[in-house]
Design goal:
Elements lengths: L14 H27 L3 E3 H8 L3 H10 L5 E3 L2 E5 H7 L1
Antiparallel strand pairs: 1-3, 2-3
Length: 91
Amino acid sequence: MRSNSSSQQFFLVNAQDLKNAIDASIQQAIQELKEGVSKSNNDNLVPLKEVAETLNVSRCTLNRWNKDGYLIPIKIGRKVFYRQNDINEIR
């Protein structure tokens, strides 16, 4: 006698329950996106020169910190900025 280890399961879901589940997932995703955007909007960008002066370090040190992943800059065109929250964390 052979035993079949795979089993199949069937679920019956009506259209309204499926729609409600999808709507809830979408609303949760939208909320998470809004929270992420609001956090990034509250994060001021500080120019490289000001960061070097504030932390009393050289630009070379900031470059090394970038390579080490300690303080990551944001580049906009040729200009380099740092997030104020990141600077506050290492003070």
